[in-house]
Design brief:
Keywords: Glycosidase, Hydrolase. InterPro entries: Inosine/uridine_hydrolase_dom (IPR001910), IUNH (IPR023186), Ribo_hydro-like (IPR036452). Pfam families: IU_nuc_hydro. With 316 residues, this protein is α/β, with parallel strands linked by helices. It has a single domain (3-312), classed as Inosine-uridine Nucleoside N-ribohydrolase, Chain A, CATH 3.90.245. It has helices at 13-24, 42-56, 80-83, 98-101, 109-117, 130-138, 140-143, 168-172, 174-183, 192-195, 202-211, 217-231, 241-248, 300-312; strands spanning 3-9, 28-35, 62-65, 104-105, 121-125, 148-152, 187-190, 199-200, 238-239, 255-260, 263-264, 275-276, 292-298. The chain has a nine-stranded mixed sheet with strand order 4-3-2-1-5-6-7-13-10, sandwiched between helices. Strand 1, helix 1 and strand 2 form a beta-alpha-beta unit. Helix 1 (13-24) packs parallel to helix 13. The chain is globular and about 55 Å long. The model has no long low-confidence stretch (mean pLDDT 94).
């Protein structure tokens, strides 16, 4: 049995890549998915999760309804130009039926999963942090039983993808991000510093498609690549932000980490959602100051080999 993972996600293209990676990889056992708003609405996220579960026959995965709106009180902003109107590029899942709605679990099911797996459970958050922050507000002591938490988010002294300095998951609900960073223990952050370079090229996509194991990815990743290509003509492929975050849970040795305090800007303006870490090598921090593990670099060759092996069933 693989590592028990509870995934919090706003299932668009790269969340789908992560879900399929976890499904195909025997080292990972996804025990539940929390459907959040973010790339798309919560309703569309739920529909996409149900679509993927049925397409790949994942009956053991619990689907839990997460947050619909951020703690800022705003209406969330969606990004159809990145992931498509429905979140899966050009793919349009069938509208949900009443039967599909009954497949979802109440938010309280997260408590049951933590009680069931305790220190075996790893939480991976690939979308906005609203639902995860809610767990820390309601069940702070219980959350201490979770083995580890990985979040895809932040940009540390590299360009953001929403503002010049801010990454989308943090920008979308900086209040929630601040709560998670304040209370979480054993937290690993996989920011744009790493995820922007976790590139899947069109050639890789075509080879995966030809093998047939994960052929559903091609229309999604082709769509995704076209967005990135318009924004940056020099880019060589699609960055799979969420997949590399999930991969980090079983391949820590690929990454270069630093333990640092992290600050989130919650005020409005261009710096909203900025994540700040003091990387000055001579800086001395207070012994009791909260620190988190941040990935600043990774081994792309290892990523390539593992990703292609998992998605095709062939050894690379």
């Amino acid at each position: 049995m693989g590592k028990k993972v509870l995934l919090f996600g706003d299932v668009g293209v790269d969340d789908t890549v992560a879900l399929l990676y976890g499904y195909f990889n025997e080292q990972i056992d996804i025990v539940g998915v929390v459907a959040d708003y973010g790339n798309i609405s919560r309703e569309m996220t739920l529909r996409n999760i149900i679509y993927l579960i049925r397409l790949f026959n994942m009956p053991e995965v619990k689907v839990i309804l997460g947050a619909e709106k951020p703690m800022t009180g705003e209406e969330p902003t969606f990004y159809p130009e990145v992931h498509g109107v429905h979140g899966l590029g050009p793919i349009i899942p069938s509208p949900m039926q009443n039967l599909e709605v009954t497949l979802t679990e109440n938010f309280y099911e997260i408590v049951n999963l933590i009680n069931q797996y305790k220190e075996e459970l790893t939480i991976v958050n690939t979308g906005r942090l609203t639902s995860l922050a809610t767990m820390f507000i309601l069940y702070r002591e219980l959350m201490k039983q979770v083995k580890e938490i990985y979040i895809m988010g932040g940009a540390f002294w590299v360009p953001g993808n929403v503002t010049a300095v801010s990454e989308a998951n943090i920008y979308g609900d900086p209040i929630a991000a601040k709560i998670v960073l304040q209370y979480a223990n054993n937290l690993t952050i996989i920011p744009l510093n790493v995820t922007d370079r976790a590139i899947v090229t069109p050639g890789m996509v075509d080879y995966i498609h030809a093998k047939g194991k994960a052929s559903v990815l091609k229309p999604m990743l082709d769509y995704y690549y076209q967005f990135y290509k318009k924004r940056n003509p020099a880019i060589k492929g699609s960055p799979v932000h969420d997949a590399i975050t999930l991969m980090a849970t079983i391949h820590e040795d690929w990454f270069t980490f630093k333990m640092l305090p992290v600050h989130v800007i919650t005020a409005e303006g261009i710096s909203r959602g900025q994540t700040i870490a003091d990387i000055r090598p001579w800086m001395k921090f207070e012994e009791n100051e909260k620190k988190h593990r941040i990935a600043f670099d990774f081994n792309y060759n290892e990523f390539f080999s593992d990703f292609m092996t998992t998605m095709t069933g062939e050894k690379f």
